[in-house]
Structures are given as C-alpha cells and as structure tokens.
Amino acid sequence: MIQILSPIEHLLFPLLFLICIVMFTHVFRQMYHKTSIANERLSSNRLINILLIILVGSIFTLGYFITIRHVRDEEQKIKAEAKLTVSALKSAIESKISKIDAGVTAINGSPCFLDYLRNRSDEDLINTNAVLDRYQKAFNAYAVYLMDTAGTTIASSNRNSELSFVGKNYSFRAYFQKSKAGNQCSYFTTGVTTGKRGYFCSAPIKSKDNQILGVIAFKYDTEQLDSIFMLNPRAFLVDQNSMIFLSGSSDFNGKPLFPLTELQKQEITSKVHYKFNSLEPLIKEPPKTDHVLMGKHLFLASKTILYLPDWSIFVFSPKESVFKYYLLGFSFTVALILIIFSLINYLTSNRIREWAEDIFLSEKKISGYF
Prior knowledge:
Layout: H1 2-8, H2 12-31, H3 42-107, H4 111-119, H5 122-138, E1 143-148, E2 153-156, H6 174-180, E3 185-190, E4 197-206, E5 212-221, H7 226-230, E6 235-238, E7 244-247, H8 262-270, E8 291-294, E9 297-305, E10 312-318, H9 320-367
Antiparallel strand pairs: 1-2, 1-5, 3-4, 4-5, 6-7, 6-10, 8-9, 9-10
Helix pairs in contact: 2-9, 3-9, 4-5
C-alpha cells in the first residue's frame, strides 16, 4: 500500500472532493423532483441540506488541513532525526581519522627516519621499525610505513606479515605524490596489496634544510568503521563521483549512489586502481529535491560534508510513517463524510417514501375512495 500510495498521495483529497460533489448532485436530483408535492417543503429541505453541505465541507477542510499538518510534522521529525544521525556519523568518522592525521603529524618529525633515509644501516632500521611498531599499536592502524623518494617502502610495521608493504612501490598513489610535493594528504581508498578498504594518511619527511627525503604513511583499516554504518542500513560514505565507499550494507559498496555523467564514468574506468563493483546507480533518477526514490521506496535524503575534500555522508530515511499519517487522516475524513452521506441517504429515503405516500393518498382522494 505504501509503495502504491507514494506517487498518488497528493491526488487523494482532490479525488475525494470530486466524489463528494458527484454524490451530492445525485442525492439532490433524487430529493427534488419537479412535482408540486416535492415543492411543498422545499425551503425547509434546502435549509437542512445546505447545513449538511456546510458540515461535509467543514469535515473535508478540517480533515485535509489536520492531515497535512501531521504529515508535515512527521516529515520534520524524520528530517531532525536524520540530521542527528548524519551529525553522529560525521563526528564518529572524523574523530577516528583525525587521530590518524594527528599521528602522522607527530611521527614525521622522528629523527631516526632521517638517519635511516640517509644511511640505511641495520641499527637505524631497528630504531625505525621500533618507532613504526609503537605508532601502529598506539593508533590501532593496519600499518605504518616509510617510503623513499622513489615511492618504495623501505620499512613497515607489517614487515613480518604475508602482505608486507616492504619492497612495494606506491609512487602511483596520490597520497605519496602529494606528500613528495611537501603536503600532508589523507583520503579513503582500497589497498592494492591487501585488497581491503582503508584510510590512508601521509606526510613528507623533511631535513633541517627543508629537503624532502621520504614519505611516512598510515593505513587505517576501515572495517573498524563498519560498525558505525551498521546502525543505519541506508547510510553512505561517498566520494566526489558519488561512488559508495562505506555503507550499512556491503552490497552497496563500490557502486554509484546517483547516476554518473559520461565524464565521471570515463574517470572511474580509466583509473586502474579505482575499485568499483558496478556503474549501475542505486538511485535511478537524479534527485531534484530531498526526496529520493530507491527501488520502489521513497526516502528523505540528508547530507553532510566531511573535512576531507570531496567526501560526503548521505543518510536516507524511510517515509513509511509519513504515508501512514496521510492514509490515517484520509481514512478518518472519508469515514466521517460517509457517515454524513449515510444520514443524507436515510433522510432522502424517508422523504421519497413520504412523497410516494402523499401521491398515493392524493390519487385515492381524486378517485373518490375517500
């Protein structure tokens, strides 16, 4: 019912109004036949029916405005709750990633990195690994690793794992390229070595004379953020191309939330390391308002922007409760109007019966039976 009601909800009350007009017209035609007997009490009947018309009109108007008021109040309630949800998600995510950013800022000044980047001695490597291990545990990161200016990892906290970053070259990564240029960089992406989603943050390692000798990077496993999105099955973290990176359902990850332009499709497919599952959007039509249709269900969309460039959070809130209020108000209004029409029909039947009896008695008088 909710799926059917959604596209026609604004037609229900106008349709009810037309039905009322048709029913009143039919009733009046029955009540006011052009006979002399029918006209005997025409003025009193007109007064009664005018009052009934006013009563039905008042019920219709009152029912309409009360229903619309409740619908608007419920929409405002849903929007307020969605705003709180979006804010909570934003705060939870930013509190996690800001700690990683702070960790990168703190670690890139470690003097042992400069020593190892210059000398590459075993002793300096031991000291470097000790610092990397300490920061990895302190920030619960997947890995903390050091790269030279060519992008090759020369030390990593996951050096003893099967998916060790040591020896891997990540010069193609945007975070390395920006840090090599002297800037701290952070964003979400999928690891090429692990194949797992992560939050990457990097910073340049500079000498005293401001020369860049290498890049330090953190990878934070975003599986630790999945529990945040599990609280809302229609919450999405998307990039500048509206591709879903994190959501309440793993089935949505790697898909566009909204329809893509041809330029966006070319950008996504041209990047070898851009991980996506499908280019078929969850929302088939570009939204023009804060209402979006996903599948056969209508949702209210709320959005907030992270402090990371080009990253946003969307939350879709179902409108079932709004439709229920609309349907309840419409049903209650219809019920009251039907009661009035039943009363009119009852009065009409009695009046027609009286007319028939009066006509019968008049004919008997004329025939000489009385």
